[in-house]
Write a structure and sequence with these properties.
mainly alpha, 2 domains
Length: about 130
């Protein structure tokens, strides 16, 4: 089974469980897939992938916003601002990992390797 087929099954499974598309297929994952990375959805990806992608999601936006509106007007040192941004991203990343872990337990999702054994629901089979 190809990665794309398994990805389609994973997305359909997550949608059937009631998860919003922005949660099971975030923009950073879409972007990285378009440039050639084979990333599993966050609910099936490993902790390191989720940790890094969550940080890439938050750190630039948070750091730039805080620098423009708070830290630069205060005269804060840029190294200190980078440290604060990194610390905030790590805390956010850990909370994201905990949220994903709890969702995995509540939803009872299978592993990525077991997805090929699951049939696609009739609604998805009729669409494509």
């Amino acid at each position: 089974m190809t990665f794309e087929e398994r990805l389609t099954i994973a997305h359909q499974t997550l949608a059937d469980k009631g998860i919003k598309e922005c949660n099971y297929n975030p923009w950073i994952f879409k972007l990285l897939r378009k440039i050639g990375c084979t990333l599993k959805p966050p609910y099936y990806a490993g902790w390191l992938v989720n940790f890094l992608c969550a940080g890439l999601n938050l750190a630039p936006i948070y750091g730039l916003t805080m620098w423009i509106f708070v830290w630069y007007p205060e005269g804060r040192d840029p190294v200190s601002a980078l440290y604060s941004t990194a610390l905030s991203a790590v805390i956010f990343d850990l909370l994201t990992l905990i949220r994903l872990w709890l969702a995995l337990r509540q939803l009872g999702l299978t592993t990525w390797e077991q997805l090929e054994c699951q049939p696609i629901s009739e609604g998805a089979a009729g669409e494509g």
